[in-house]
Amino acid sequence: MQALDGVDLELVRGEIHALVGENGAGKSTLAAIAYGAVRADTGDVEADGVVGLVHQHFKLIERLRVWENVLLNREPRRGWTIDVAAARDRVRALAARYGLAVDPDAVVETLPVGVKQRVELLRELDRAPSVLLLDEPTAALAPSEIASFFTTIGELARAGTAVLVVTHKLAEVVAYSQRVTVMRGGRIVARHATAETNAPDIAREMVGGDVPALARRARTEPAPLLEVRGLSARSRVSALDDATFDVRAGEIVGIAGVEGNGQSALADALAGVVPFDGEVRFDGAPLAPNDTPGQRIARGIRVIPQDRRHEALVLDWTVRDNVALGRQRSLPPRAYAEAAREVIARFDVRPPNPDTIAGALSGGNQQKIVVGRTLASAPKLVVAYQPTRGIDVGAAALVQSRLIEARNAGAGVLLISFELDEIFACADRVLVIAGGRFVGAFDRASVDRGRIGALMAGDA
Amino acid sequence: MSGAALALAALLGLTLVKATPLIYAALGGVLSERSGVVNIGLEAILIAGAFTSVAVSGATGNPIAGTLAGIVAGMLVAAVLAFVATRLAVDQIVAGTGLNIAALAGAAFGLQLIYHQPGASREVPALGTPGENVLIVVAFLAAAALHVVLTRTPWGLRVRACGEDPSAAESAGIDALATRFWAVVTGGAIASLGGVYLALAELDLYSDGMTAGRGFIALAAVIFGRWTPFGATGAALCFGFLAALQFSLQRAGVPSELLQALPYLAALVALAGFAGRVRAPAADGMPYIRG
Amino acid sequence: MSAALRVRTLRELLVVIVVVFGVGSIAMLLAHVSPVDGFAQLVDGAFGTPEEVGETLVQAAFLLFPALGIAVAFRAGLFNIGAEGQLVLGGFAAGWIGAQLPLPAYVAVPMVLLAGAVAGGIWGAIPGFLKARFGANEVIATLMLNYVATLLCTYLVTGPLQQGGATAAETGALPKAAHLPDLIGLLADPQPTLAYLLTPFALAVILAFVLRRVLLHTVFGYELRAAGDAPEAAKRAGIDLGRTALVAMAISGAIAGLGGATIVAGELHRFNTGLSAGYGFIAIAVAIVGNLDPLWIVVASIAFGMLQSGGIAMQAEAHVPKEVIALVTGLVIIALAGRRAVANRRTT
Questions:
Q1: How does pLDDT run along chain A (460 residues), one tens digit per residue?
Q2: Is residue B75 part of a domain?
C-alpha cells in the first residue's frame, strides 16, 4: 500500500495550515518528506528558506542539557572548544523572544513534557525557519497549555512563517487554522479555507463515511472487584501518588488524562511490573504489592500494554505463537493453533492465517491479536492502556466493541486513554488523573467535558 | 626510607606498570561506547598493537617506528569493527568476539611466518623500561585529553549525542554513522598504545596470549568507571593494583593461580556490585539504521 | 523459506565462501604455499582415509557440544562466551572422578559424563545468577570465568587434587570401564581406531534432536525463546526473566561441560589442561553458522570439524600454519554477525 499517492500541498507565509487525517492517513509521512528527512519516490519538494519540524515524539537527547539540544551541531565556538556561556545566552535570548521559558542548563530528561516541547520548538526556531511543520503538537499538552501554544504559533505565522500543523484534533483546527487539508489513505481528499467548513464535515471527509457503531451497552449490576486505597507507584516514565478508586465487575472505568501524568505507573503497578505502596483488594482478597506479572495473571488481572510492538508481541513469531503468549502454561502447545483461529475469527484479523508473521501485520491487526488473546482468557479485570492507539477507525471500533462486550459479560475494565472521545464512548464512569493524582470523578450522567479538560490541565 | 615504605613504593610503581595497558584500553573503550558502539574487540586491538609494534621494531630496529606501526594496526582492526557495526548494523558483541578470535590467530600465524617458532617472538628493541616510561605519563594525559574532548568540544558533543540517541542526532544534521565510525577508530588508536606498552615496554617481545584478557578487564573498568575517562582510569588503576599485589602475595605463599585469577575475579565482583546502578549511554550497543 | 530469506541466505553463503577461500588463499600465499596445494591438503586431511573421516567426526563432536550449549543461551538472549571454561571444567570433573572410582562400565560412563555436565552447569550458572540477580553483563562475566576456569583447573590438578604427579598437569588415567564404549565394536568386527571415535558424535547428534524438540515444542522452550526474542513482552506475559536466564545459562554450561567430559572419556582418557583446542570459541562460529538451530548446527559442526582435522594435516603436509583455520573462523563470525537470529538479541 502506498503511504502517499500523488499529493500536492502548498504552504503560504503568514498562515496556519492544518493537515488532518486519521492515524495511518499519511500525514506524518508527508511532513517528514516536506522536512527532507525522508525522500519521496516521485515528485519534489521546494521551500523558500529553511524548513523546521517539531516531531510528535520529540527528537531530544534526554541526558543532554537544554542548550546542548537546542544548539546541537551549531554550537558557538571559542577556538577548539564550545563557548558554553555564549550558548546559554543564545538560548535565553531565543526563549525570551518567543515567550518560551526554559532553563538552558536543565537536563532534558528531568523536564515535564510541556517544557520539553518548548525545547524542541526552540531548536527549530533557532534555525530561523521560513516553514515550520508541527506533527501532533498538542498530543501531550493539557488543555490550557494548548491555548498558549497556539498563541505562540499564531504570532510566528503573523511574523511571516508558513506553519503546518499536522493533527487529528478537529476542535483545534477549527479554532486556530486558516486553511485545512484532509488526507485519507495516502491521498488528499479535500481542501478548504477553515472558515468555510466545520468539524463534523471534516470528520466525515477524514473517515470517508460514518464511523461504525459501538456495541450496545447492557444494564449490569456492578459488584465490587478492585478496591484501591492510597496506591502509590513509580514506573520508568511516570509516578502515581495516593490513588483511591474502585472498579466494579460489569463496568468500564475510564481514566482520562494527558499523557505522562501517572497512567504508566498505574498500569505497571496493576500488571505487577513495578511494586506499589498502599492497599489494594481484588476479588475479595488483598493484592500483594510485590507480585510478579505471572501472579497477577493467575489472579485474573490482565493488562493490554501501551506499546504493542515492544511490550505485547514477539514480532518475529507467528500469529499462533503470539496468541499463546500470556497463556503458554494454561494452554497445551497442541491447542495453540486452535486458539489462534478463534481470535482471528472473533476479531476479524487479516490475513486470517495463523502462520503469518506478526511483524508483517498492520498496526490494527496486531492490536486485535493483543486484545483478542487478552479477552479470550476471560480475565476478571482488564486494564486497557491506549487500546486503540495508532490503528484505523474500523479496527478501533471493533476493539472498543469487544471491550464493551466483556463488560457486559461481567468483567471489570479499566480504560486508560489519552483520547477523550474514546473514554466518553465506552466508559460508565470517568476518573481524571493529573500530576500523578486522581483529581476528579464523574459518572456517565454527570460528564462535563469542559470541567474534565480543566482538571486534566491541573486547574482544580 | 624504611623497608615498608620501600615496599609500598615498589608496589605503587608496579601498579602503574600493570595499570597502563588497562588505562589505554579502557579509554579507547570509553570513547567507543560513548558514541554507542560496544567494543568487545578491545582485546583484538591490544593484540594488534602488541604484535605489530614488535614485528616492526624487530624488523627496523626502531621502537618508535614500532609504536607508530602498532597504532596503525590498532586503528585498522578497530576500523573493521567500526565498519560492520555502523554500515552493516551487525550485532556488535558477536562481531567483536569474532575479531578477537581472528586477531589472536592472526598474530599466532604472523609469529610462525616471521619467527618460525610458535609461541613467542625473539626480543626486540624496547621503548624504554617498564618503570619510568613516557607511555605511562601519556596514558594519564590521554585521560585528561579525552575528558576535555568529550565534555567541551563540538565533536565530543556529537559523539555523546550519537551514543544517547542517534536518530535525534541525525535530525540535527549529524552523520551518526560516520561519527560512530571515527569514534571507534580513534578509540582503537588510543587502545593500541596499551598493546604497544605491553610489548615494547614491559616484555620486549610478543608471545601468544600475552594480552590475557586485558581487553575484557578494561571493559569492566569502563562500566565500573561509569563510562567516563577519569572513572575508567581510576578503575583501571584498581585492577592494576590487584595485579601488582600478585608479586607481594606470592612471597606470602598464596598459590600463584589464585593470584593470577585476582584481576578476573575483581572484574566479576565489580560487574555484580555496580551493574544495575549505572546507566550506559542510552543507545550503547544498538545498531543505528537510517530511515 | 520465503524468497527474500533465500536471497539473504545465498548472499551470506557467498560471503562465507569468499572469506574462507579469499583469506585462506592470502594466508597460504604468505606462507609460500600455493592455495591449491593448501586447500587440497585440507580436504584430503579431512576425508582422505577412514581414520581421517573418523577424526573429522570426532572434531565435529567436540565442537557440537559447546555449540549446542551456546545456541541454547543465545536463544534465551544471553551471549555465553564462556563455553571454553565450562568445557575445561567439565573435562576436569570427568577426569578426576573417573580416575578415582573403580566402577563397572554401565555406571562409570554415565557418572563421568554426569560429573562433566554438573561441573559445566555450575560454571554456567554463576554468570547466569549474576545476570539474574544483579543484571551483570554476561559477556564479560563468562569471559572472565574462562580465565578463572583454566587457572582453577591448573591449580587443582597440580595441587590439592593431583593424581598424575605434581608436575604433570593432568589427572590420572581413566580405567577402561570409564571409556566411552565402541559403538561400531558392538555391532560388527571393528576397526578399533575408528570405533569409539563415533560415540561422541552420535551422542551429540542425539542431544541436538532432543534440544530441538525442547526448544520448539515444549512450554519451557517457548518461554526461553520468548525471553530471548522479546524480553519485555515475555515479562508481561508472566515469564520470569531472571529464572530463565539462570536456567538457560546453567543448561548451556552443562552441555559444554558434557562436551569436555566426552573429550576426556572418549579420546584422551584422562584430563589435561590442554584438552581443548579452543573448541569453546570456534563453537561460537558453529552456532552462528547453524543459525542457532540444533539440526543445522550439526551440519555446521561437520564443516568446522573438517576444518579442524584438515587443518592439522594441512600444517603437517603443506606447512601452512594451522592458525589460518582459527583466523578464518573469526572472520566468518564477523561476516555472519548480521544474521537475523543473531542480531535480534537485546544487548545489555
A1: 456 777 888 888 889 999 987 766 677 788 888 887 677 777 778 888 888 888 877 889 999 999 999 999 999 999 889 999 999 999 999 998 888 889 999 999 898 878 888 899 999 999 889 899 998 888 777 767 788 889 889 998 998 899 999 987 788 888 999 999 988 777 888 899 989 988 778 877 776 665 566 777 777 777 889 999 999 999 887 899 999 999 999 999 999 988 778 999 999 999 999 999 999 999 989 999 999 999 999 999 999 999 999 899 999 999 999 999 999 988 888 899 999 999 999 999 988 999 999 988 988 899 999 999 999 999 999 999 999 987 877 888 899 999 999 999 999 999 999 888 889 889 999 999 988 899 999 988 888 777 887 787 665 4
A2: yes
Nearest to C342 by CA among A399, B34, B88, A34: B88
Tell me which residue of B222, B225, B263, B260 sits closest to B241, measured CA to CA.
B263
Q: What is the largest CA-CA distance in chain B?
A: 67
Question: From the list A293, A316, A333, which residue is nearest C219 (CB)?
Answer: A333
Are the beta carbons of A73 and B174 separated by less than 8 Å? yes
Query: Between residues 70 and 89 of chain B, which touch chain C (CB distance below 8 Å)?
Result: 80, 84, 88-89
C56-302 CATH fold: ABC transporter involved in vitamin B12 uptake, BtuC (1.10.3470)
Question: Hey, what's the cell of A198?
Answer: 466545520
Q: How far apart are CA A56 and CA A53, in angstroms?
A: 9
Q: What are phi and psi of C42, to 5 degrees?
A: -60, -50
Domains in chain A (CATH in brackets) are 16-207 (3.40.50.300), 223-317+366-456 (3.40.50.300)
Q: How far apart are CA B14 and CA B247, in angstroms?
A: 9
Degrees to nearest 5, angle at CA C120 with C116 and C126: 155
CB contacts < 8 A, B to C, total 160
Half-sphere exposure of A438 (CA within 13 A, CB side): 21
Alpha-carbon gap: C279 to the closest alpha carbon of chain A (Å): 31
Q: How many domains does chain B have?
A: 1
Indicate yes or no: CB of C281 within 8 angstroms of CB of B92: no
Cell numbers describing residue A263: 497512567
Distance separating alpha carbons of residues B41 and B77, to the nearest angstrom: 8
- Rg of chain B on CA atoms, in Å: 19
Q: What is the DSSP string of B97-119?
A: HHHHHHHHHHHHHHHHHHHSSSS
In a domain, B281, yes or no: no
Length reported for chain B: 291
- C233: nearest CA in chain A? A311
Grid coordinates representing A70?
537546542
Q: How many C-beta neighbours within 10 Å does residue A438 have?
A: 22
Single pTM value for the model: 0.86
CA distances from B117 to A152, B109, B120 (A): 76, 10, 7
Please state, in angstroms and rounded to a whole number, the distance separating the CA atoms of residues B261 and C294. Answer: 34
Task: Assess if residue B27 is contained within a domain.
Answer: yes
Position B291 in a domain: no
**C-alpha to C-alpha distance for A166 and A175, rounded to whole angstroms:** 14
C-alpha to C-alpha distances, C106 to B23, C110, C190, nearest whole angstrom: 54, 7, 21
Long-range contacts (CB closer than 8 Å, 24 or more residues apart) made by A296-301: A296/A270, A296/A271, A296/A272, A297/A326, A297/C237, A297/C238, A298/C238, A299/A380, A300/A379, A300/A380, A300/A381, A301/A270, A301/A271, A301/A272, A301/A379, A301/A380, A301/A381, A301/A383
Question: What domain range is B97 assigned to?
Answer: 20-213
Closest chain B residue to A62 measured between Cα atoms?
B164
Residues shown for chain A? 460
Burial category of B61 from C-beta neighbours within 10 Å (exposed 0-12, middle 13-18, buried 19 and up): exposed
C-alpha dist (Å) from residue A335 to A10, C227, C239: 55, 21, 19
ipTM here = 0.90
